[in-house]
Design goal:
Layout lengths: L2 E7 L2 E7 L3 H21 L5 H129 L5 H14 L24
Antiparallel strand pairs: 1-2
Helix pairs in contact: 1-2
Amino acid sequence: MKNLVNVRIFNRPYNLSTDDQESYIKKISSIVDEKIRGAISAAPGMNVIDAAILTALEAVDEKQKALSTIDDLRSQIKDYVDDAGEARLKCDEAQKELRALKAKYADLEKEVEIRRMFNKKDETEEAVKKAEEAAAKASAAKAAAEKAAAELKAAKAAEESRAKSAGVRRTETSAGRPPITSSSRITSSSALAAETPSSGSSQTGGDTPGSSPRSPFKR
């Protein structure tokens, strides 16, 4: 619905039919009135038509400059939008790469944890192996000690058996000989003296009491 707005420009009434609001139309009409009055004041001999034409030229110039500025702004905005789009693409790529790096980092952490677990397992197995080797050495040493003790015990028993056997033989040998007394030793000595002739006795003269038999050999 068209709005009918009554305005006055340089003391002349105008009825304007517009789609815009009355306040807006009165505002721009006041600006045009001021510009015409400013042009006439600057050139007192200028009529209203010339002042209106100058005002229109000024308005068109402002419009063109505004449109040029708008075009520049649009171009700049387009560049900004393009830059923003490129930056968004780069940001998306960076986020994608960041997600990939995070996933790779998580995989590396899992791999490190698995390797750490395997290393602990290897260390445990190595410790168990060393413990088993130490136990085997200890068992071998114990067996060697027990064998040495058994051999020592057997050697001691054999030595005791040999000593016992030697004692029995000595006893048997002593039992087979007659005991020697002092009287028998004296008798044997007297008999030996009677059988042996003395160097001072005479074989022909017979035995003289208190003298020894004489030897048949002379010097």
